[in-house]
Amino acid sequence: MKILFWTSLLIVFYTFAGYAIVLYALVKLRRLVKGKRTVPELGVHFPTLTLIIAAYNEEGIIEEKIRNTLALKYDADKLKLLFITDGSSDKTPDIISQFKEVDLMHSPLRKGKIHAIHRAMEVVDSEIVVYTDANTFLNAEALLYIARHYSDPKVGAVSGEKRVMQDVISDATAGEGFYWKYESALKKWDSELYSVVGAAGELFSVRRSLYRNVEADTILDDFMISMLIALQGYRIIYEPDAYASELSSDNIKEELKRKVRIAAGGIQSILRLKPLMNPFSNPILSFQYISHRVLRWTVTPFLLILTLILNILICIQSSDLLYQLILIAQCLFYLMAISGFMLEKRKIKVKILFVPYYFCIMNYAVFAGILRYIKGSQSSAWEKARRKSA
Q: For a 10 Å CB count at each end of the chain, is N or C smaller?
């Protein structure tokens, strides 16, 4: 029982903290041996580029998104702006059509984002394709920071940074901002060691020549598209100076809906990316993939429960102080999470409690996502989460 307890506890620790420690140490070691990776100069490399924005019923924000897009700095002769609005039943297509500087592809049929992307990719002939969401806003230099990395022929994709707008962050999802700051640090180190493990749909780009269509029922299209490029032997770079800012989820219920969808897509991706589990093909990439993604999306949430149960059983059978202290720490953590839940219901602001609350919600989402995927009830179509108003 004790062996199983410590094994479970170590895996849990490694998944959420230990990997970051090991990764940071490996990056430091690599710098000592090979030196720090050089970053291409900004504003020198200008490949032809198409920016694709998928929008579904975004009439309340789409005009602001278009103006943000038109303000992006890049060589106008090498840039195309393409909006796709499959299934939109509001005024989104009409608003976009008023702007002659951008192209619009609209279909009345709602088949999901990946169908829309497949349609768009049939007409895209630029060297680089950049994808971003309609409800995010890019910094003016984002395309310049992304494009510079493609001067390296070993780079197959570049992922930008997602930022949660802190000035309007919702109380219920205060943990979301902390989570993305931690994720950004991991991505920075992943990228320097070898490659980011999957790109975020808010802002990422690929070489057009390496793009491969994914299955029509793909849930996490951004993750699958980027990892299929990694499987071809190319690196995915993380560029934090190219960032997409978005509002936090309106409340924890909306954030949970988004997380469950991601968890269902995570299981689907793992089943479809089996070659990434083979360490003999690309050992560094497999190590990063298993450590950063697979553990989170599979066994670790179950081990959290197992660790607590085993800890209770051991304390019943033994008076060992170490196990009692660990149990007290676990109970305090979950009491903080429960307190965060109760206070969120009453609209009381105690942000320190929302971090453990958000952590528990994330892991609960894995259970719900696995169940939803097994039942086949997760659609690949857009499933928008309401965002907090600015």
A: C
- Longest Cα pair distance anywhere in the chain, in angstroms? 74
> For residue 349, what are the CA distances in angstroms to 179, 334, 335, 344?
18, 18, 16, 8
Strands 235-246 and 137-138: antiparallel
Distance of alpha carbon 198 from alpha carbon 220, whole angstroms? 10
Could you please report the per-residue DSSP string of 348-390? ---HHHHHHHHHHHHHHHHHHHHHHHHHT---SS--PPPBPP-
pLDDT value at position 246? 83
- Residue 251 has a CB neighbour count (10 Å cut-off) of 16
Would you list the domain boundaries of the chain?
1-36+153-390
Sequence-distant (6+) residues with CB within 8 A of 70 are: 81, 99, 101, 102
Give the C-alpha separation, 101 to 85, whole Å. 16
Sign of the four-CA dihedral 98, 102, 103, 108: negative
CB contact at 8 A, 251 and 173: yes
Radius of gyration of the chain from its Cα atoms, rounded to whole angstroms: 22
The whole-number average pLDDT for the span 255-272 is: 91
Q: Which residue, chain included where needed, has tokens 């205060």?
A: 174
Q: Which residues are CB-contacts of 265 (< 8 A; sequence separation ≥ 6)?
A: 218, 219, 220, 223, 369, 378
Cα(340)–Cα(348) distance, integer angstroms:
9
State both tokens at 368: 């719900």
Contact between 374 and 360 (Cβ < 8 Å): no
pTM for the full predicted model = 0.88
The closest alpha carbon to 71, from 51, 41, 93, belongs to 51
